[in-house]
């Protein structure tokens, strides 16, 4: 089922007694989530992810805007009539009920013709439990299970009514690293098997990148970019998106464009055309202060290269080498640290004071220093 949000906005009154200004938790969302896809809603804590999800499932009413599931508007429908399954971070299982009862719970309140017999409910619960591979744990209570198993129960409970849309709010954050990895693969598998349109909320960029068909990157209630994970990584629209995606993070330098050259400090690192497209408009590049974002894999070790950094240390990571160096124009949280990842086939002398790089243009992103929008060259 396609999900379409138009001008969707949620404004909360302030919770802070001193600061009375209201909070725009979701600011004019206009987005279509295609049928059958897994979409990752990604952004830092407090950016409005949970609010967006709660609006979609009907736990919150929007201040403005509309929500459509397929051609049907659901903006004012109560949650139970929307056909969505929701999974929360803290599982929210009933502690006194068995796994089977927990999973069956959403089926209990079907009325009239839809009312199910005990046997039908049990069959449906078993089917949902098999999907998340916990069918052998049906008689346990939540406290007798691991966090990962409890989260599977929560997912089974969300799936038991065969929802048209599955919403997952940071479902992996209470799990340890290994289980997190395993459970996210599991969610991907279940989504593929069922074909249910799924919205997966997380603040973890790696998690979102690894399982999503599409990611929606947001900050302070505003959608900044929507695209396939690789597309967004390869062509971020602004400095925020560039910094939010990728580990190690993109290296950001203060730079300047001068007469067709991109300068970091007084070194000319790339040739730059005279005009660029910024936010849909043609602009002149000459004389512009910029931020230069270079992905860790965008550096080429090159004795004749134009960018000179002070070598700190070399970390060998098997296939790759991580070269940690410093540059006065680097802006990484004030540490001036540069992290570059190069193939382990490179030979690098750790006793040298400096290391020189040339840059891969496709891995180098240039942002206007004032607007922080990307400059694109045709
Ligand atoms: P996220 O899930 O991305 O961490 P939330 O959607 O929970 O973010 O919150 C977005 C913003 O809205 C935050 O500033 C939060 O404090 C505020 N907020 C959320 N719920 C309420 C509420 N019920 N009343 C007032 N402010 C709220
Ligand atoms: Mg949240």
Describe the structure.
This protein has 378 residues and is of the alpha+beta class. It folds into two domains: 241 residues, 3-Layer(aba) Sandwich (Rossmann fold); 130 residues, no CATH class. 22% of the residues lie in helices and 35% in strands. It contains eight helices and 22 strands. It has a six-stranded mixed sheet, sandwiched between helices. Strands 13-12-11-16-22 form a five-stranded antiparallel sheet. A five-stranded antiparallel sheet has the order 17-21-18-19-20, with no helix packed on it. β4 and β5 form a beta hairpin. α2 packs across α3, α2 runs parallel beside α4 and α3 crosses α4. The relative contact order is 0.12. It binds adenosine-5'-diphosphate and magnesium ion. Magnesium ion binds next to α1.
Secondary-structure map with pairings?
Layout: E1 3-12, E2 23-33, E3 38-42, H1 49-57, E4 64-69, E5 72-73, E6 84-87, H2 99-108, H3 118-131, H4 147-159, E7 165-169, H5 177-194, E8 197-202, H6 205-211, E9 214-219, E10 222-227, H7 229-234, H8 239-244, E11 251-258, E12 261-264, E13 267-271, E14 275-278, E15 281-284, E16 289-294, E17 299-301, E18 307-317, E19 320-326, E20 337-343, E21 354-359, E22 364-368
Parallel strand pairs: 3-8, 3-9, 6-7, 7-8
Antiparallel strand pairs: 1-2, 1-4, 4-5, 9-10, 11-12, 11-16, 12-13, 14-15, 16-22, 17-21, 18-19, 18-21, 19-20
The structure holds adenosine-5'-diphosphate and magnesium ion.
């Amino acid at each position: 089922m396609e999900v379409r949000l138009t001008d969707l906005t949620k404004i909360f009154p302030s919770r802070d007694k001193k600061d009375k200004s209201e909070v725009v938790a979701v600011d004019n969302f206009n987005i279509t989530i295609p049928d059958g896809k897994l979409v990752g809603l990604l952004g830092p804590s407090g950016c409005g992810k949970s609010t967006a999800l709660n609006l979609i499932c009907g736990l919150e009413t929007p201040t403005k805007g509309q929500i459509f599931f397929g051609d049907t508007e659901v903006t004012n429908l109560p949650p139970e009539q929307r056909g969505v399954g929701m999974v929360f971070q803290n599982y929210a299982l009933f502690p006194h009920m068995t796994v089977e009862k927990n999973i069956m719970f959403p089926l209990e309140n079907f009325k009239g013709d839809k009312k199910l017999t005990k046997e039908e409910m049990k069959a449906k619960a078993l089917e949902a439990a098999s999907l998340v591979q916990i069918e052998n744990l049906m008689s346990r209570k939540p406290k007798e299970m691991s966090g990962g198993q409890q989260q599977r129960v929560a997912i089974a409970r969300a799936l038991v009514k065969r929802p048209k849309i599955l919403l997952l709010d940071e479902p992996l954050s209470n799990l340890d690293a290994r289980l997190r990895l395993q459970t996210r693969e599991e969610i991907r598998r279940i989504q593929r098997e069922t074909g249910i349109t799924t919205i997966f909320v997380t603040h973890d960029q790696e998690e979102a990148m690894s399982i999503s068909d599409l990611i929606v990157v947001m900050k302070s209630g505003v959608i900044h970019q929507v695209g396939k994970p690789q597309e967004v990584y390869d062509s971020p629209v602004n400095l925020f998106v560039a910094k939010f995606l990728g580990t190690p993070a993109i290296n950001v330098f203060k730079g300047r464009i001068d007469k067709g050259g991109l300068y970091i400090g007084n070194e000319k690192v790339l040739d730059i055309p005279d005009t660029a497209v910024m936010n849909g408009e043609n602009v002149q590049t000459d004389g512009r202060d910029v931020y230069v974002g270079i992905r860790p894999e965008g550096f080429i070790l090159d004795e004749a290269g134009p960018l000179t950094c002070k070598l700190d240390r070399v970390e060998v990571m098997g296939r790759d080498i991580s070269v940690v160096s410093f540059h006065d124009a680097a802006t990484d949280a004030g540490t001036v640290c540069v992290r570059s990842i190069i193939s382990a086939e490179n030979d690098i002398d750790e006793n040298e004071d400096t290391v020189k790089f040339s840059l891969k243009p496709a891995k180098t992103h240039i942002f206007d220093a004032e607007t922080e929008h990307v400059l694109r060259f045709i």
